[in-house]
Amino acid sequence: ADKQRIIKLLADAHGDVTAMTGDGVNDAPALQQASIGVAMGIAGTEVAKQAADMILMDDDFATIVAAVEEGRGIYKNMQAFVCFLLSCNFGEVATVFGATCLGVPDVLTPLQLLWVNLVTDGPPATALGFNPPDPDAMTRPPRDPKAPILTPWLLGRYAITGAYVGFATIQVFLNEFKDRGVSRQRLRSWASCDLKEPAWADFAPTGIVGDACAGAFGAKGAVKATAQTLALTTLVAMEMLKALSAVSLDHSLLRVAPWANPWLLAGVALPVALHMFLLHAPWLRGLFGLAPLTKAHWITVAKFSLPILLV
């Protein structure tokens, strides 16, 4: 009776999630009343086992501690999975929406977006489910059971991440046109490009031989293909870096290194290898409308993708 009163007091007065351990017949009512009743598997009676929610097979209380730590780790991994996919998809939406608002050509084609969603998002997101518990998981107070899995802090943080992903993807796209001598004004009016018109008579992007309009804005134009390749590669690089930093939601890479989760390393290595194959296989590159990247291009990719580690 005393045990039942204590459980009721903790639950009613403080709103605590109560756990009760027991092995005897007299423990059965309290085991049934507690939020989580734990019966001893070796020394416990059948009555206690039937009343409990969980049976401790080795009768070792350290197992309960390990189970709590594992449970907290699983919850964090669920948050990491949701937040990673949320930031990736928000970044892709921001890219498409931002390009539409700016009136510039498509930053990414539907096929390229499909590549990102099916090939480069899935393996890292799945691997995040194998993250180990944080080093300080057991020093934190219990979370509010009514708290949503996506807290306002996480939602705001990953919304900012997604916004940066969209900004960086669009910016590398615009910079390639700028470096080729295409002004922002002409880029916004790309659909009306006609060399016979006085406004376009002097249009001559760098590195284009022949029809300047087709070379800059055409479906197979060299400038557009290079710009889209830069945008796609930057987007993939940011998502892979974000996956590596998501090995812990609360600690930096200096505290919890990516190799703490070997599955995450494999989940990142596979999409990177596939993307490199996409860029270096001529027939596949042509199918996706991409172009080879130079050393300067890779420096640009690194310059825009590395800051994602700070968000």
Shape: elongated
Helix- and strand-based class?
A: mainly alpha
Query: In DSSP terms, counting alpha (H) and pi (I) runs of 4 or more, how many helices?
Result: 13
Average pLDDT level: 89
* Strand composition percent: under 5%
Residues in helix, % = 55-70%
Cα-to-Cα separation, first versus last residue: 53 Å
DSSP, total strands: 3
**Which residues sit in consecutive blocks of at least 5 with pLDDT less than 50?**
none
Radius of gyration, rounded? 28 Å
Description:
This protein has a 3-stranded parallel beta sheet with strand order 1-2-3. The two termini are 53 Å apart. The longest helix is centred in the first third of the chain and has 42 residues, at 61-102. It has helices spanning 2-13, 28-33, 46-51, 61-102, 110-120, 122-127, 152-179, 184-188, 212-217, 222-245, 262-280, 282-287, 295-305, and strands at residues 19-22, 36-40, 54-56. Helices cover 59% and strands 4% of the residues. The model has no long low-confidence stretch (mean pLDDT 89). Helix 5 runs parallel beside helix 10, helix 7 runs antiparallel to helix 13 and helix 10 crosses helix 13 (295-305). The protein is mostly helical and 311 residues long.
Q: Keywords for this structure?
A:
mainly alpha, 3 strands
Provide a short characterization of the protein structure.
This protein has helices at residues 2-13, 28-33, 46-51, 61-102, 110-120, 122-127, 152-179, 184-188, 212-217, 222-245, 262-280, 282-287, 295-305; strands at residues 19-22, 36-40, 54-56. By secondary structure, it is mainly α.
